[in-house]
Amino acid sequence: MDANDDSIKFAGDYRMTSIHLHSHANSGFTSDEDGVNIQKLVVEMNIFESIDKNSVTGSLVIVDSINLIGNLPIQGTERLSFKLSTPGAHQEGHIVDCSEETGNPMHIYKLTDKKQLNEGSCSYVLHFCSREFLRNLRTRVSEALTGTIDQMVTKILNDENYLDSKRKLFYQKTRNQDKIVIPNMKPFQAIEMLAKRALADQTESSSAGYHFYQTTKGFHFRSFESMCVNAYGQPRQVKQEFNYMPINLRDPQITDIGRHRGQLAAGDKILHDLTSVEDYRFINNFHDVAMNQAAGTYAHRVITHNLFNKSYKESNYHYHNRFEQTKHTDGPNPAVVDTPVDFDNKGVSDYPESRLTVMPTTQYAHDEDTGAFGIDVEQDGITEAARVSQRNSISAGTKLKLTIKGQSYLQVGDVIQFNILSVENKVQSEGKLDPHYSGRYIIEKMRHRVTTNEYIQVIECAKDSVVNAYSKYTRKTFEGHKLPYDKGRSVNLAWQDSISSMDGY
To answer: Which one has a higher pLDDT value, 112 or 496?
Structure first.
């Protein structure tokens, strides 16, 4: 935590030179000052990023004994500049750089929770956000855009009349192009509309829909599939491997999982702690089959009606039939089996009416013989169903929340490896990993929490597949088998027969 020391002393150590608060006049307490360093007043800093959020936000918990509110003054138009990194991290992508020099400082927009602690001090929370967050509130897009979807997004992000962003944009090229009219929408809203139509520039993939989000390193416009694999279809490299071990095994000299994975050397406590999980829990009910069934993850019927030729088409989406047409987080196996679930001998993907969507589409709206996605209009229904299924697989799939030591090079969209022993092996120093809940995860949300003592991260991760299949996908039948409610039904019938024969009934 020493600003001049670039060697890591312990897991959770960090390097931050200063936290400068600049007034609306770009000064500190006086006009000749370049902001005021408030690092000693900050009790806690939080930075939030998510693949479901278009911008980075954060907060500062401050204990103020110098009347910063009145002397600066603070009115909600100030700028905040700082650099945060793990000691030894020098690469541009490894540093949380919100400095004035890079042109990417954060902006204060709210002050809350002001409390008087004693006669000479008070506490409050300053909320900050990226510049683009506020630009989005202040501008609107009203324009007809042409070209590929990624070109349209770049236009909105960089145009000085819209977001006018100076941050880097990391994007995946799109194959579909069209002419799209943006009808007086907020920039983020317009980009989200474009993201729903985006199709990856990979003809062998049926992935549909993009995510547009901001991290501390820049903006990203990409599909979930691109977070799992690279442009060649190969699994992306794991950014960090995390191990959860029982308390009796948490000893730097014990390198069970880490040694097995080739990461740890005996006695290397810092690396041991950086790859250890302080706390974890699974959220989202592991995998909610009922909600996924209703939301159209497994089966979905989309009825498209073509306004040009006055026709309609029914498109039925089947999760298991199309699963291998896209790349996934952790292996080639679905998170749910395709075996029969009822007497009709159908699996969860065989009920297209579990979700029904009516979707308008047309050709030649802008003199182009294409539909809503900029491709063949006949493909609109099945493409929309695939987009909905892939979104649901993430939001309603297996989710994991971890508390780890802070590592500034991690960001949302990265791949991590989570290792946890299966329940029956947790008493052993070297046992088998859990076959379904260990494996590769995508970081979906992240909270950077910096205090005066340490830097930790709370991350939420998601996966849409399992590395080990639950069973072979061979059809089995219910014939010859009776379920419990079969027996219950026969008992009820026998009871009715007995009471009907009673005298006087």
So the answer is: 112
Give the span between the Cα atoms of 42 and 60, in whole angstroms: 6
Residue 87, domain member (yes or no): yes
Which H/E stretch holds residue 493?
helix 484-500
Question: Are residues 38 and 112 both part of a single domain?
Answer: yes
Contact indicator for 82, 53 with CB cutoff of 8 Å: no
Helix or strand or coil: residue 136? helix
- Domain range for residue 50? 15-129
Query: Is 473 part of a structural domain of the chain?
Result: no
Do 412 and 446 sit in the same domain of this protein? yes
Q: Are strands 311-318 and 356-361 parallel, antiparallel or unpaired?
A: unpaired
Tens of pLDDT along 120-138? 899 999 999 999 999 999 9
Sign of CA dihedral 470, 472, 475, 476: negative
Verify that 105 and 247 share a domain, yes or no. no
Beta-carbon count within 10 A of 493 CB:
10
Within 8 A by CB and 6+ apart from 139, the residues are 161, 162, 163, 186, 187
Contacts of 303 (CB under 8 A, 6+ apart): 312, 313, 314, 315, 356, 357, 358, 359, 381
Query: pLDDT tens, 444-472?
Result: 999 999 999 999 999 999 999 888 887 65
* The total number of structural domains that make up the chain: 4
Same domain, 363 and 272: no
User: What are the beta bridge partners of residue 360?
Assistant: 305
Number of H helices, E strands in the chain: 11, 22
Residues 404, 379 share a domain:
no
Residue 152 and residue 102 in one domain: no
Chain Cα centroid distance, residue 176:
24
At 329-383, the pLDDT tens digits run: 987 889 888 889 999 999 999 999 999 999 998 877 767 778 888 888 899 999 9
* Mean pLDDT value across the chain: 85
Say yes or no: 283 and 421 in one domain.
yes
- What's the pLDDT score for residue 284? 73
Within-domain flag for 482? no
Give the span between the Cα atoms of 437 and 337, in whole angstroms.
16
pLDDT at 51: 96
In this prediction, residue 3 carries a pLDDT of 55
Q: What does 110-158 look like in DSSP terms, one character per residue? A: EEEEEEEEETTEEEEEEEEE-HHHHHHHH--EEEEEEEEHHHHHHHHHH
Are residues 224 and 265 both part of a single domain?
no
The domain that holds 191 is classified in CATH as: 3.55.50.20
Examine the pLDDT at 219 and tell me if it is beyond 90.
Answer: yes
Kindly report the backbone phi and psi dihedral angles of residue 446, in degrees, each rounded to the nearest multiple of 5, phi listed first.
-150, 140
SS (H, E, C) 428-472: CCCCCECCCCCEEEEEEEEEEEEECCCEEEEEEEEECCECCCCCC
Residue 214 tokens read as: 């901001």
In a domain, 7, yes or no: no
